[in-house]
Design brief:
Keywords: Membrane, Transmembrane, Transmembrane helix. This protein is an all-alpha fold. 76% of the residues lie in helices and 0% in strands. It starts with a helix and ends in a 7-residue tail after the last helix.
Length: 225
């Protein structure tokens, strides 16, 4: 069987997107301005008090999530059979949608900086909390949080398909629990996030390793639907 050059290129792009997305995302978390708690006034002060750093972090976080979303969709090209396909596809699509949602949410950081710099603290907090209390905002946040269980589903699918070991969903699941138990910002959540994304780095490496023409040519054709 002849190798499919399109599939090879897709896997190279997938590996690049996954690895680059993880690096950019971790850099975004590492540059989030420090804050002691999640109180509205503290949060706005952290962003408004370090506007340059906050803008850099927002740009990196938004770009990182968007690139990762592309990588997840591209990773479906690694599937060459039905084993684990439903889990993987459902998880990748839902996680990609969640990442796109979070990528868009980060844009609001620029408005939070302007609120802190342009209004008295009490007024800035009132406007911020009013916006956060809108039903549409809550729905958007929920959509973003779906990416975490969806990634677990996707990794379980890749493990079932034999592309990753079962260590991948286990490590990701444990690290995700730890991530939500850590302080809101700082080197600890950044380090935990890096551990969470190890399976995605490995998946990116697998995409590269399976992009060679000999590997692609030797693979069985996908089963017809």
């Amino acid at each position: 069987m002849l190798a499919d050059p399109t599939l090879s290129r897709r896997r190279i792009l997938t590996g690049t997107a996954l690895i680059a997305g993880v690096v950019i995302e971790i850099a975004g978390w590492a540059t989030v301005p420090p804050q002691d708690n999640l109180e509205s006034a503290t949060y706005l002060a952290a962003l408004g008090g370090s506007p340059g750093r906050a803008q850099l972090s927002a740009i990196l976080l938004s770009l990182g999530w968007a690139v990762l979303a592309l990588g997840l969709v591209g990773a479906l090209s690694l599937l060459r059979g039905t084993r684990g396909a439903i889990l993987t596809t459902a998880g990748a699509v839902i996680a990609a949608l969640g990442m796109i949602s979070v990528s868009g949410q980060v844009y609001s950081d620029f408005y939070k900086i302007a609120l802190h710099q342009g209004l008295p603290v009490a007024d800035a907090v009132r406007v911020y909390e009013s916006a956060e209390g809108l039903g549409g905002t809550s729905a958007w946040v929920v959509t973003g949080f779906l990416l975490f269980p969806a990634l677990l589903l996707m990794l379980a699918g890749f493990a079932r398909a034999g592309i990753l070991g079962w260590w991948a969903p286990a490590l990701y699941g444990a690290a995700t629990v730890g991530f939500f138990l850590t302080p809101p910002v700082g080197w600890i959540p950044t380090a935990v996030l890096a551990v969470m994304f190890v399976p995605l780095i490995v998946l990116g490496v697998r995409a590269y390793s399976r992009a060679g023409s000999a590997v692609v040519a030797a693979e069985p054709a996908p089963a017809p639907n």
